[in-house]
Amino acid sequence: MKNSSFDRFKPIAFLGKNTQEIKTIKSLSQNLAATVWLPNSNKTLPNPKLVSDNLKYYDCSLSEHLTKIWEKYRALVFYLATGAVVRLIAPLLKDKNSDPAVIVIDAAGKFVVSLCSGHQGGADLLTKLIAYEIHAIPVITGASSSLQLPAIDILGHAYGWSKGEGNWTGVMAAVARKERLAVIQEAGNSLWHQQLEDNIFDFDSSNIGQSCIWISERQRNLKQSELPQVQWHPRVLWIGIGCERNTAKILIEQAIVTTCDQYHLAHNAIAGIATIDIKRDEVGILELCDAWKLPLKTFTSEKLQQVTVPTPSEIVRKEVGTASVAEAAAICAVAKDADSLIVSKQVFKEPGQSGGVTVAIAKADKEYIGRTGKLYLVGIGPGSLDQITSAAKVAITEADVVIGYSLYLDLIQSLFRPEQIIESFPITQEKQRGARAIELAEWGLTVAMVSSGDCGIYGMAGLVLEQLKGKNWDGKTPKVEVFPGISALQAAASRVGAPLMHDFCAISLSDLLTPWEVIIKRLEAAAMADFVTTLYNPRSQKRTEQIIKAQKIFLKHRDKDTPVAIVRSVYRQEEQITITTLEKMLDHAIDMLSTVIIGNSNTCNHQDWMITPRGYLDHK
Ligand code: SAH
């Protein structure tokens, strides 16, 4: 089963000398959908599928082979000695903007070392994720990781921003010296502000006498500046295009480039192209979108006609039924009014080239991320980090945003990265939490929504899926993945023995969302049918009667000495375990942090353990 948390690092290659080591990581390489490269001498392997479904051989030296594949992978994972890897990659290293992430795993699988391109190439993060997967120790030596410095040079990655020109080395050095940095933000989201150490950034633009970071659609020439300055470009520009039939791509391209340059707009700040729907098959526009990897938004003439524009044209209205295509489409694309237009209609005609083009540019409030968002619905287990699956850890650490109830976020704090957005909500705001997670994932972010225990057992998974269904979700955008967790019933059972060895059920005593009559019906049925029964949400400060009624129902059908376990805050520091009987269960403290397990008619106690016989010993 492939884990999409690794998507951002793909394609990934694993390299080793022989099958001995690589065999041990089959599931890792499969999870990462990695290509496993081995030398030709391994070709006689009796069963190559045991190593990987995607095993390939090279028939030259490893250093020659590396030269061939160096630029083809975003991450290279070596099963070799670190020294050997250093020698192999030394001649190939160019710069940290383009080199792949290089990672080394020792033969015993104890350590995962982030060797190269740790920060921008993502090797530090991938190292951590692999270490979670194989239960190894991540070895990360980059300064930004150990000093928890704000990651200026990867700040915009999550939001699809492009890095512009500037003295990046100078700014990073200033940050490492903990100097203050002016931030002038003219475009893009401000979500990222909340994760900053506020003593480093200065958002007051009157203080520009220091190193500076511009976040803008504008292209600034920062070369003359003595102080280090850099620029990020969020994709906020929507280019409205009108053109005659069969206008060549090159003319459309020239029109866009000329307009952007004239108005000092960064090409990388372009979010997409907008036009009238009858142009949705215009070859020149489609070729341009393809080459520049831009989305195309089209609008009907009726829709365009409703927009007030600065430069309407009667001739255009007669031809296509709206007085404006370029300006109106750009405004429609940003879903705002004419104020959003930062460049009004420009007309281009080139002698010798077919067609003519009009260009107008509008600026959106929200940047276009350019990725399909993902929604991870993650169960974090009962509360201790040992009881969370490695897949869930990977998902939480990899996500751009982690959302959850504040108490649960505290439990998993050590998994967070400094660049991540963490949004905590009070316990009651489940619907708001779900809606927020969906909103951010629809925008293009990877969002991890965490629940305690299992997210699909009285957790957030069901609510979020219901909310998506209510929005007519197509099942793909955002992409949803559910990560199971150890539920309170399993965790509680494990601490008292094996009470769930036979048929069992879970019933929540909370009548906040379920009518009490329904709960009573289920309690009666479970008690009568002799199910071992786990009670969730057994008693709160306001709801005190339900547990008393539940006990009464069970006493009608089961012996008063039936073993009962009350497990509170299982696998957390304040854990309390009580083994008692059905008759005496109410003499003990039971609250919202407790799970109650009522045994069936065969459940017994031995020493401090609770056992429900499965029947093996009676079986002849
Ligand atoms: N999704 C969670 C359940 C959430 S409902 C899961 O799968 O475990 C909340 C109830 O779960 C609590 O009232 C309590 O009954 C139970 N619970 C959750 N965490 C617990 C813990 N650490 N110890 C004991 N009970 C717990």
Structure description:
This protein has 620 residues and is α/β, with parallel strands linked by helices. The chain folds into five domains: 4-141, 3-Layer(aba) Sandwich (Rossmann fold); 158-233, no CATH class; 237-363, 2-Layer Sandwich (Nucleotidyltransferase, domain 5), CATH 3.30.420; 374-486, Cobalt-precorrin-4 Transmethylase, domain 1, CATH 3.40.1010; 489-611, 2-Layer Sandwich (Methyltransferase, Cobalt-precorrin-4 Transmethylase, Domain 2), CATH 3.30.950.10. It is built from 19 helices and 30 strands. The strands form six sheets. A seven-stranded mixed β-sheet has the order 3-2-1-4-5-6-7, sandwiched between helices. The protein has a five-stranded mixed β-sheet with strand order 8-12-11-9-10, with helices on one face. Strands 15-14-13-17-16 form a five-stranded mixed β-sheet, sandwiched between helices. Strand 29 and strand 30 (609-611) form a beta hairpin. The chain is globular, with a radius of gyration of 30 Å. 43% of the residues are buried. The model has no long low-confidence stretch (mean pLDDT 91). Bound molecules: S-adenosyl-L-homocysteine. S-adenosyl-L-homocysteine binds at residues 382-383, 451-454, 457-459, 487-488, 492, 536-538, 567-570, 572, 592-595. The site of S-adenosyl-L-homocysteine has 24 residues, from helix 17, strand 26 and strand 28.
